[in-house]
Amino acid sequence: MGSKLQSRDYGTEIGDYQLVKGWVEAHSGDSVFAETLLPPVGVIVERGGEPVGACWVYLSAGIGVGFLEWPVTKPGLGLGESLQIMGFALGVLESIARGHDYGALIATTPAVIGKFLEKDFGFVKIGDRVQLLKRLN
Questions:
Q1: Quick check: 7 and 44 in contact, CB under 8 A?
Q2: pLDDT (tens digit, 9 = 90+) per residue, 55-87?
Q3: By the 8 A CB rule, do 41 and 48 touch?
Q4: What is the pTM of this model?
């Protein structure tokens, strides 16, 4: 856990999608992760050159609100390490959003993750929401 965290843009390395898809499936057993659903702004977090996490933000045109999507860490990491990695990813995405004059980020997430976002990362709960997906093709 000692190496410094760094980030790079998602998609700059061959195999990024397959890597992250494998992480999502390992964590949830879910195969809904599709590259065509990813926002255009995403980061891969690396430690010592090894990918350890990823997250995306959809920067909605014209309203200054970003929507966080698909936060995921490499399977097998401890809670503290995963929080550190996600905190780093959030910091990078916040900087990108601020650089484009965005004033807010919204995250739709399971309640247990929401508690960490509130406690450790400055998010405020705005109601009880459920995120649903309906594929149109």
A1: yes
A2: 999 998 888 889 998 899 999 999 899 999 999
A3: no
A4: 0.86
